Every structure is written in structure tokens, then in C-alpha cells.
Amino acid sequence: MVTKKIPIAVAKGDGIGPEIMDATLNILKHAGAPLEIKEIEIGEKVYKSGVATGMKEDAWETILNTDAFLKAPITTPQGGGYKSLNVTIRTTLGLYANIRPCRSYFPYIHTKHPEMDVIVVRENEEDLYAGIEYQQTPNVTQSLKLITRQGSEKIIRYAFEYARHYGRKKVTCFTKDNILKISDGLFHKIFDEVAKDYPDIINEHWIIDIGAAKLADTPEIFDVVVMPNLYGDILSDIGAQISGSVGLVGSANIGEHGAMFEAIHGSAPRRAGQNVANPSALILASVMMLVHLNLPKEAALIHNAWLCAIEEGIHTYDIFTDEHSKEKVGTKEFSDAICKRLGKTPSQFEAISYGEAKEHKTPTITPSDKPAKSRKLLGVDVFLYAKPKLESFYREISHINVGSLNVQLITNRGVKVWPNGFDQTFCVDHWRVRFISKDKKTQIDQKEVVDIIAAIDRMGLDIIKTENLYEIDGVLAFSSADL
User: Fold this and answer.
1) Where do the domains of the chain lie, and which CATH numbers do they carry?
2) pLDDT tens-digit profile of 78-110?
3) Which of 66, 208, 394, 442 has the fewest C-beta atoms under 10 angstroms from its C-beta?
4) Distances, alpha carbon 123 to alpha carbons 166, 184, 323, 419, in Å
5) What is the Cα Rg of the chain in Å?
6) Are 240 and 264 spatial neighbours (Cβ–Cβ below 8 Å)?
């Protein structure tokens, strides 16, 4: 019986990418995975040819017309305004969920955490990775952190669905909502809402700083962890490293209309062409790909052969130790060693099975859209570029008022300097002036905001940006602790 081959896009990438991809494809071939390889070129050469995205149109077409994308690490050239290709692919294709299993392979691979088995589920499209940045003054830059209700609900539900499907017991949320009360506060709020739909799974929340410390010190207390994009990027690398090595962790980027699989490490150009790189992360990423493509037998075949090689001491230089390693091998030789062990199951590690019942399909998640019952414009924050000291700046700005709007707050670098500021506060050339009514309840219209801006403009002051202040469903929808 002839099995129809599944088309996948493959990019060999830069640096060590071609070596570890060849090693991985060698194993996939020997395992009999029915794949039709559609190779594309992306990365450094494409960037330097003048393509700002690092990927030509024909490569996009290939990815869109295949069932999965297996990608080796690439190099993004320094300078020149090049955007991360990984971020571009994830956002363009809607790959909202990033899954990184961080598991201990003790004692064969050194770790201080022999019982570690943590799945990091990372939101993959928004947060600071939206890449919206500005230099507002010669001395001040700004990055916009975007957290949406829809994006948060999708990734949080994915984490709970993953936990339920794979028999995991607990989902932990990490945020910094003690400081970022609105953005991270929304992520935490939605986590608590979604958790109610999964009473069979334990849920908990940690502030990111102490949560990160606990993950680094006692990872065995965590199971599935879910968090916004930047936190997830950082903590998944920490998790990978303390489990044994960043070089051992594969990554799945999953969306409803596509999937990309990759190693979490970079292209390591200094190691390129030496046949020393550890291909394990890409190999394990390919296992995740096979599960996604509903090829559980081939996935288990490769995963178990990899475990056999590890416990038999067949190790690349990065994980080689005198105590537990028996043979130091290169990239190609490690691949060949796995091929020779296809069909074997490990004797010390628990054998892996990806039965049909365990296949993890991407859940269809339709996030709730909760329109506001009421939305009132209350005022405006005006950001200004100005060098004078507070006293002279306040004299210039304090008399401006339109209707109920007048100056109620002045900050510098986000720190309140008026009213009741302190002389010791260090100031630069970045000011924020809040125009709002004294009772902070009086609704205004946009014309009053325009009139405030016009009045400031007539004074010759340099406006950087403005931000409208709203009350949504009776709650102030802006940072207001200083008022």
C-alpha cells in the first residue's frame, strides 16, 4: 500500500543550520516518515540580497501550500533595520502558540533538577514582540506592550487544552500585574476566567520575578506554565538550560492555519562547518512536527531511538561528561547512531508512545469579544519634549484649560513630579501632562482634546504624542495611581 506523502517546507538556515537539518532529515528518512520535502531559502543571504523580510515571495508560497514548516536557525544581520524573520513568520501565519518542553534527562545529561518536566506555553504574536518602538526625544525611547483580550484567551485556553489532553495536572500563569495592572492585569484576569472552565486542572498564578526564581530553583513544582510573549521567551530558555541544555529543546509554533517547528537555539556561526553541533533540538522539534501531522508511530520511533542514544552515552561535545558519556560523536555520527537504534526502546527512560488517542490537534478557539457597555472620554495625556526645569515648565503649561479640562498631573519619565513632587527626582527631556477634570468623572468630546493640543501648539511647545483617557464600564482605563 502506497502512503501519500505529506508536503512540508524545509529551510536549512544559516550557521550550523544546514548540518543539523541534514542530520534531522537523515533520521526522518530512515524512520520512513512519508514526507515530501519542499526546500526553501531564507535568512542571511536573502536579507543581504535586499529582501528586508529575509524571505522571498516563492518561499511564502511554499509555506502556505505545505502542511508544516521545519526550520533550522537563521542569522539576522546586525543593523540595517532587519526584522526578525521568526517574528514575521509567527505573526503573518497566526502561529499564536509556542510550546517548548523542558525535560530532564538525568543522569545521562547533567542537571541539578532530575525531576524537571515543564511545558512552557508562550503567547507568540503580541506583547512587546509587536515591535512597535519610537525614539521620542534625543534621550528617551518607547516600546509599546500590546496585550489583547483575544490573544490572551487563545493562548490560555490552548495551555489548558494541552494540559487536559496530555494528562497534565496543573497550569501556572506568570505575569507582572502588581506593576502592569492594566496590560498584565488583563492577562491574569482572563486566566482566572478561563480556569473556571477546567475544574479538573489545578490553576495558580505567580508574579513573574518570584515565579522565575522558583522555576530556576525548584522546577519540579511546575507542570504547564503559560505567559505573555517576552516572559515566555526568557523563561523557556532558562527552563531549557537548567533541564540540561538549550541545545536539547525543540519548539512548536502552532496556529489554526499553519505550524512551524524549530530548535530554540541560534545559528552559532562560530561552530558552523565543524561537524560538532548537537542536532537534538531540531530532531525533537521534528518529532513534535510528526505528532502534529498525525504520524504518531514515526514520532515515537525517532523519540525512543534518541532516548536510547542518550542513555547509551552517545553524546555530542556539549553534553559529554566523563561520568555518563561513552562516545563523543559529531553531528553526522549522532544522526547515524539514532538511525541504528530505530525500533529500539530505552531501558532506563520511560518509552514514548504517541498513540492516536494522544494526538494533539490544534484546538479551534474562538476568543470571546466583550464589547464595552459604556466608554467615556475623560481627558488626555500630552507627552512633550522640553528641557526646562519643572518650575519654568509648570509656569508655561499650568494655565491651559478647556472646559472642564485642566492640568492635574505632570510626570517625567513616568515619575510624578507635580503635584507634591520631590526636588530629588531626576528629570530628563520627556514630560507627560495629564488634562482631566478635578473629579475625574466629567465626560468630554474629542473637540476638547483637539483644543488642548491646539493651545499647547500655540505656545510653541513640542508635542511628542497624545493618549486619550477613557472610563470603560465604569472603570478608569489608564494608570491612575498618582492621581
Assistant:
1) 1-96+244-360 (3.40.718.10), 112-230 (3.40.50), 375-476 (3.30.70.1570)
2) 766 777 888 888 988 999 999 999 999 999 999
3) 442
4) 19, 13, 39, 39
5) 26
6) yes
- Residue 147: which of 94, 195, 184 has the closest Cα? 184
The amino acid occupying position 282 is L
- The residue type of 372 is A
For 128-147, how does the pLDDT look when each residue is reduced to its tens digit (9 = 90+)? 988 899 999 999 999 999 99
**pTM: predicted TM-score of the whole model, two decimal places:** 0.91
CA nearest 200: which of 172, 174, 228, 163? 163
**What's the rounded Cα separation, in Å, for the pair 241 and 247?**
8
Residues in the chain, how many? 483
